[in-house]
Amino acid sequence: MDTLLDIVGITKSYGTTRVLDGVDLKVGRGQVIGVVGENGAGKTTLMSIFAGHQQADGGTMRLNNAPYWPKSTEDAQSRGVGIIQQDFTLDPAMTVAQAIFRNTYQADRPQRALIRPAQWLLDDAGVRLSPDSPLGGLAHAEQGLVEAVRLLAEDAQLVIMDEVAASLNVQELDQLHFIISRLTRQGRSVLYVSHRLREVQAVATHIAIVRDGRIPEVLDPLTVTTEDIAAHMRTRSARRAWFPDRLDEELTESVPEEAATFGAPEEATGFGVTPAPDHTPAPEHTPAPDHTPAPDHTPAPDHTPAPEHTPAPEAFGQAPAPMDASATSDAPAPVDAAQPAVEEPAAAADPAPGPSRGRRAMAADDGRNYDALGTDTPLLEIEGLDAPGAHDVSFTVRTGEVIGLTGPRHAGQDAVVAALNGRAPGTFRTLRINGYNRTINSPADAATMRIAYLAGPDEEAPQERRRSLARAMMAGGWADGSDFDTEVEGLSQMMSALEKLQNASKKLRGRRARRAGLPAVEAEALSGGQQQMVLLGDWMTQDADVLIVSEPGRGLDHDARAAMRAKLNEAAENGAAVLLVSSDIDELATSCRRVLVFDQGSIVQTIEGSPITHDQLMSAFATVG
Ligand SMILES: Nc1ncnc2c1ncn2[C@@H]1O[C@H](COP(=O)(O)OP(=O)(O)OP(=O)(O)O)[C@@H](O)[C@H]1O
Questions:
Q1: Last residue of a domain, one of 177, 209, 233
Q2: Which residues pair with 607 in a beta bridge?
Q3: Domain ABC transporter spans what residues (predicted)?
Q4: Is there a contact between 191 and 218 (Cβ–Cβ < 8 Å)?
Q5: Which residue's alpha carbon is at the smallest distance from atom 7 of ligand 1?
Q6: If you measure from the C-alpha of residue 535 to the centroid of ligand 1, how many angstroms do you get, rounded to a whole number?
Q7: How far is the CA of 153 from the centre of ligand 1 (A)?
Q8: Residue 317 gets which letter from DSSP?
């Protein structure tokens, strides 16, 4: 094998937490190495070291047979290493053409001079975007494709893609895979981080497992199943639990028991998720012939191995929002409680919308027997919705149903959701929730009507995500007896500036952590998947009637996705209607029995099945876009 990158014994710690514990890996020319591992396994940390964002504490790296120790991204680029970062952000004012050439000698040329070469690259890659489009008008997934085309324009020999596929739809995945094949045909190598295991199998020549701070195995994608890969990813100590609990466990693992006064019980398995067996390697694994598996790593003399992945005490202390609904049942509606516009009742006298407490809890107030309504009762009825990007959309979601909304980009599914959660204008010929006519003019209306919404990647500027995270992480503080009014006032002041928010949330979390006898953890210290867990956990605690979630599985590992699905089902079984907006066919097939396929602003197909198959969804996608 012609080796491009050869790393031995790479170590990296944050404080006293050792994240990488002696990683060995060889990357051959023209190979696509799928890099997989549980959330928080250290994949992004490792990629950041290759790309010069971070420096390793120890080990050796050689690129092209020469020592390699990049001090910065520019340094790495000059040596032929390019990266698309996880959760990258690009200047929204930049055009597609400018983004593609921004790291090349063409960077200073005027836009008009870039159009033709950009168009050529886009056409060659099969990406249907205009070189003139500003990035701000594109979905995050589309920007990811622009980033991939950028790598074609640059002459990076080692290309790193960290979770680029997280929210790509089938057509976009095809385009990405095509770009990857173009890169490898030119003799370049790709490190491809993804949690979509089936997709990794399709694109990778080798699958490197990141586990317990190392890469103990490299698998042949042709001889393993996705379940095998997931089994190889599991740490020996991993317990399968609902993700906030699991995160709680991770964050509190090394804290003395008496200090852990809040959070999940030791063995949190009450969410329909089976505890993982100890890691059992797939029996018939045969390494790919041309790959040289990493030898067992022998720790450097100065290396003190961390006992069984023990996170640093100072990285802990902040529990995510509690999952127990009873703990938050008195929590306020998540946005300012403006009165919703309520039209005359369609069925019965309309109860005054109160704080969000869930439909079963509400039953006592309005005299309706929600349990008797059964699971076939329409909970959300939409007729004739017109909104920017959606036209005359009608559908009904029954209580207890998890319904999928999908389609190509900008096909209408996001527009429907934006109108439903009050973030974009929409006119409904009829909107009924729980049998009552409603009007939604703002997010506050939606919240008061018990519609909870978790934003997808396109509505989530990094600042917004951090703000949501800070709020989610503070939510526990509201529930544990602190002065709610003071905290809300503090929150609204904090909203005025991210800087202020971060400082104040640090203090709040610090205070709360001190009460619990734990040190604080920063949102920034959580991996991408861990952040998504916290946000999902907070969203779930809103105890809403209508739960809308956009691309919930992005960034979550195989087991966390399974837990997330179990939790969505549980919410539905408890009487909610769940709207799952997703580009991920596997996620839709495993979560929904009905999927609405959008195209050009309308529902063009309704797929039903128990279960819905992957092929049904693939054929639907083949006819749209
Ligand atoms: N700046 C930081 N400070 C402290 N701890 C950090 C920091 N960045 C990451 N970590 C911790 O290091 C571990 C590895 O994080 P990393 O982002 O590399 O994981 P990952 O495998 O990419 O996870 P995911 O699949 O969720 O993206 C996590 O436990 C995370 O909490």
A1: 233
A2: 595
A3: 5-237, 367-625
A4: no
A5: 525
A6: 16
A7: 30
A8: -
616 lies in which domain range?
Answer: 325-459+528-622
Separation of 52 CA from ligand 1 center, angstroms?
16
pTM of the model: 0.72
Phi-psi region of 316 (alpha: psi -120 to 50; beta: other; left: phi over 0): beta
**Could you tell me if 184 and 31 are in contact, meaning their C-beta atoms sit under 8 angstroms apart?**
yes
- 213 CB under 6 A from ligand 1? no
Q: Is residue 16 part of a domain?
A: yes
Among candidate residues 167, 201, 233, the one where a domain is terminated: 233
Stretches in the chain below the pLDDT threshold 50? 237-374, 475-508, 512-521
User: ipTM score here?
Assistant: 0.98
Supply 267's token pair. 């063995």
Nearest atom of ligand 1 to the alpha carbon of 530: 26
Secondary structure (3-state) at 163: coil
**CA of 163, closest atom in ligand 1:** 27
Please indicate, yes or no, if residue 301 is contained in any of the structural domains: no
What pLDDT score was predicted for residue 389? Answer: 93
In a domain, 229, yes or no: yes
CATH code of the domain containing 175 = 3.40.50.300
Q: Does residue 251 fall inside a structural domain?
A: no
194: Cβ below 6 Å to ligand 1? no
Please, which residues have CB within 8 angstroms of residue 13's CB and are 6 or more apart in sequence?
Answer: 19, 57, 312
Residues paired with residue 176 on neighbouring β-strands, in sequence order? none
Run of H or E including 470: helix 462-479
